[in-house]
Amino acid sequence: MPSRSPGETDGPPTRPHRETRTAPADGGALGKTRSAKPRDALFDNAKYLAIVLVAVGHAWEPLRGESRTVTALYTLVYAFHMPAFIIISGYFSRSFDWSPGKIKRLITGVAVPYIVFEVAYTFFTRWSDGEPDRSISLLDPLYLTWFLAALFIWRLTTPIWRALRWPLPIALVIAALATLTPSIGKDLDLHRTLQFLPYFVLGLSLKKKHFEMVRRREARILAVPVFAGALIVSYWAVTRMNYAWFFHKSSAEDLAAPAWYGPVMTLAIFGCSTVLVAAFVALVPRRRTWFTALGAGTLYGYLLHGFFIQAANHWHWSHNDWFHTPLGAVTVTAIAAAVVTGLCTAPVRRVFRAAFEPKMDWAFRRQTPAHGQDQARAAEETPVPTPAPH
């Protein structure tokens, strides 16, 4: 089950990586510096690699039509990178409850960034898409912001899912029913929220032992033929299947398919994506690497790289025939990976921290020390998921 959990190691023991955080200043309480739990390198490595795939997937979008290979790779990436982010988000949301501290963190870490970037992307796309009259609508998530709207809903409902006896089957039924309902509309991108819900609930259900299973040497060896076989199937399916099913943002009717396809594809894609996420996590390095620290900044890379993608598309870079050659596609891939890597670095995070992690102590009631110690670890570890194309 691909999702990352804190404190897991593989092979010889490594020196734990610790970092200090400033405790949330709950209602004016002293923000004393305290030592956080050791960050598990596996999860930071996985988040970084997943966000690179997000950026690369967006860069490949204009190249899909003229290359079956690029389309096959694009389909494969979309089959697991978003589910991986969501499963991880669910895993790190297990401790969420409706206590004041957790609600504060949900608002400042998810709701406020959603509003900030919904407005920012609206103004930016007025220029990039040539739509000067585009209006701001907080109910219709624009481009990458849908994930924050969905995460807000998923995390807010976490106590409900944790209380149910069979949460995953119920989430799968809801996702299947969503594929039968074209009338859901665009409000808060509920199609994506409901159809991706099973992955979040799966993450909530995972335990450390599930990650230990995919950390074994046998799992890493098996992951290689799994991805090789998935790529072959993806290449075969390019001319036979609508890869938009992996975006989880439409009903069966919207995809010109019979209604009964929806529930069937929901179960089939869930099984396929879960296996691929497990294989992905199995292949992720367990130890600290040069990019481990970047895993803490994936939300920055996620939300900021969209401005570069939109600007590049505004200047019609894909109209250059060279980018449609094998070497051109490789170059585009490298540039996308380099840009999103830079956006996850500490200097960028310092510049934009106020937009991503506002303290907003003035907006909340003063809490007692008991509430002030509320664990915000889950929200802080939230990765950024991969958006479906706009």
TrEMBL record:
Organism: Streptomyces prasinus
InterPro entries from the UniProt entry: Acyl_transf_3_dom, Nod_factor_acetyltransferase
Top-level lineage group: Bacteria
UniProt-annotated stretches for the region Disordered: 1-35, 371-390
Protein name (Swiss-Prot/TrEMBL): Acyltransferase 3 domain-containing protein
Listed Pfam families: Acyl_transf_3 (PF01757)
Keyword field: Membrane, Transmembrane, Transmembrane helix
Limits of the Acyltransferase domain: 43-339
Transmembrane segments: 42-60, 72-93, 105-124, 136-154, 219-238, 258-283, 290-311, 323-344
